Amino acid sequence: MITRIAQRQLNMATYQQLKQAGIPSGTIAGRSRPGGPWQRLLPRVYLLQTGPPDSRQHALAAVLYAARPPADPLSGGTAALTGGAALALLGIRDAPPDPLDVVVRAPRTVAAAGRVRTGSTARWPATISVSGVPCTRPIRAAADFAARADDPALVRSVLANVVQGGWCHPHDLHAELRAGRLQHRPAVLAAASELVAGVRSIAEGQARDTLAATDLPAPLWNPRLYGADGSFLASPDAYWPEEGVALEIDSAEYHYTRDAWQATLQRRLRLEAHGVLVASTTPAIFRDTPQDVIAALRALLLLGADRSEPAPVSARGHAQLELPLPRYAPRARDSV
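and the corresponding structure tokens:
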């Protein structure tokens, strides 16, 4: 019986499961002493191996600790991993794996223990299994992360990465944030405002802040551009449709492998072949010398405005949700 439980639960078992399997309390205590074959990871949660636990085992241990017996702890019905830890388990960039946030059904409460931080909710979420660990869906995990995170830059980055990774639509994420009554948090308001405006990364968010402080017209963010024949051209970071000017913010991390760089150049050639004027920069250049980017954009916008005919390009997919959200005042330590 214990073998089957261990196979299902990443080589772990709860105290109640061990007792139900007929293992006496003294044997459990003896095997989990220092140097023994088992390890006590959390109150009533045991790792049935001598080697150190990995990140998945730590995450599942948190759920096993918080789950309500005798329910199956893997069902996601009484406890589930959420917040940054659940997002990190999915591989979402910048999501912090600690602390291990776990939600339990209200009115039940569970005390925090070790790296585990618990929260009671009456708004029970849909759950999924991620690498064998019951987790809230990414949209709820993102909202739960935003509810307890203190760093505005990290909130901005993680929410952007959740949307950019295709885990949820920005309008749905905004609805989840509203359902969680998080509108009063400045960092959440800032991130939600950017996402529904089309911004999909922290670099784009900082560029939006910089452009908003100038007299340049407001662009569309991440629109899909199509040629006159309906063929897809590209989705630049920002686009001024009346002038036919695009802004591309290309980071070394994502664009400077040989294949990625070639794809970037091909995308720019497609835009330029259709009359789009392209300004290319990096997050570091925009951050450190924004005046150079602004000057280039200003020159291109003037050129575009002076043309007798606009570029034969149409922009789609840029519909924006109107929200009464205050603008975000970036702090000096925010960076990419």
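(Above: one complete record from the training split.) DSSP finds 14 helices and 15 strands in the chain.
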